[in-house]
Amino acid sequence: MYKIKTLNNIAKEGLELFSDRFEIVDDKDVNGILLRSYKMHDMELPSSLEAVGRAGAGVNNIPIDKCSEKGIVVFNTPGANANAVKELVMAGLLLASRNIVGAIDWAKTLKDKGDEVPKLVEAGKSNFVGPEIKGKTLGVIGLGAIGVLVANAAEALGMKVLGYDPFISVESAWELDHNIKKSDTLDDLFMNSDYISIHVPLMDNTKGMINDENISLMKDGVRLLNFSRAGLCDDSSLEKALESGKIARYITDFPYDKVLNMKNVICIPHLGASTPESEINCAVMAVNEVKDYIENGNITNSVNYPECNMGVCHATSRIAVNHKNIPYMVSNITTALASKNINIIDMINKSKKDWAYTLIDVESKITSEIVDELKAIDGIVKVRVIK
Ligand SMILES: NC(=O)C1=CN([C@@H]2O[C@H](COP(=O)(O)OP(=O)(O)OC[C@H]3O[C@@H](n4cnc5c(N)ncnc54)[C@H](O)[C@@H]3O)[C@@H](O)[C@H]2O)C=CC1
Ligand SMILES: O=C(O)CCC(=O)C(=O)O
After folding, report:
1. Hey, whose CA ends up nearest to atom 19 of ligand 1?
2. Model confidence band, residue 142 (pLDDT cutoffs 50, 70, 90)
3. What is the span of the domain harbouring residue 8?
4. CATH number of the domain that 248 lies in?
5. What is the value of ipTM here, to two decimals?
6. Which segments constitute the ACT domain (predicted)?
7. pLDDT tens digits for 185-240?
8. How many angstroms is it from 47 CA to the middle of ligand 1?
9. In whole angstroms, how far apart are CA 175 and each of 6, 171, 273, 370?
10. pTM of model > 0.80
11. In the chain, how many domains are there?
């Protein structure tokens, strides 16, 4: 029986896809982990762990390098929550413009003022005037699953849209509305946008990407939306810019104490992906990925190991080997098998940056002696007998 542990609520529509070869448990020694935003960095990773399925996009809550070194494949669910986030970002654009939150708060103060309320409303509403988004320029940083949807939706609402993504995928480029203009540099986007929305992952090279230097390039009174991760904006730069009015409003899905105390900030409690549709999409995708990896050794949508698919094993045995992407690995693995007179009938070797994966179907039963021999090869970090 394969053991799966969930570290956050995972929609039942996903969990139900596990066959009766799987059980959901609260043990330490599990084969798979499913999670959403749970921070795994301080967690001990058991040697039994084969797969981590992030039901969502961002993987900054998972110790990817540590997982790679232990041969643990980390999956995410690209695009599965993108529409949910896009819809909240569109709400964010309007919240950034029309002072809706301030106005609603003020309207609440009129409670119990009886027949005076309509008069007070008409007298007070001028304090909450805010601009339309139509005709304004939105700069979208990161044109992946979410950025593309945001860019297209903003364009459909009459905005001019500038997009910046030096690593844009062919698929995203095809999805992008032809009216969206490419910004060749981030500086160009900063200088020309009335609204800026960030849709990049939090990584070493994106951390603090909104800082004093590039805020100084922005238009006065720019409105900034961050539905990606708190760490993309430098705290003190943000605080200064909000205080001076350089940034007129900051809308974020990532509240923390310091930002909650800043002026002109609207905080949403990380609700971007919190729709039933997105929770189900993510759970279904994550469960299918983890299940196919544990049962068949196939890899789809991993962030640390390569895509690899040999379908269901019809041979006598299948071996899955996670290893470093270094010379002689394939020859060392096949030599070890040949030395035991094991005939390979199908195999795939794929790599992704520093890590590689070899899936081999053979005509013989695999003994623990062979597994130990493979494990002893320098560079191999995990060996699994799938069948
Ligand atoms: N608020 C929420 O609940 C959610 C937040 N997110 C956040 O949004 C981020 C983006 O999500 P997706 O669009 O689904 O991911 P994605 O992987 O489809 O897109 C990310 C895009 O950013 C681009 N990129 C990477 N580095 C860049 C850089 N330095 N400059 C410009 N572009 C860069 C990539 O080329 C890619 O096209 C996630 O990493 C996550 O942090 C995602 C889902 C839900
Ligand atoms: O699962 C969630 O609610 C968080 C979604 C998210 O932030 C992501 O997918 O990166």
Report:
1. 144
2. very high
3. 1-81+274-304
4. 3.40.50.720
5. 0.99
6. 318-387
7. 999 999 999 999 999 999 999 999 999 999 999 999 999 999 999 999 999 999 99
8. 31
9. 34, 6, 21, 48
10. yes
11. 3
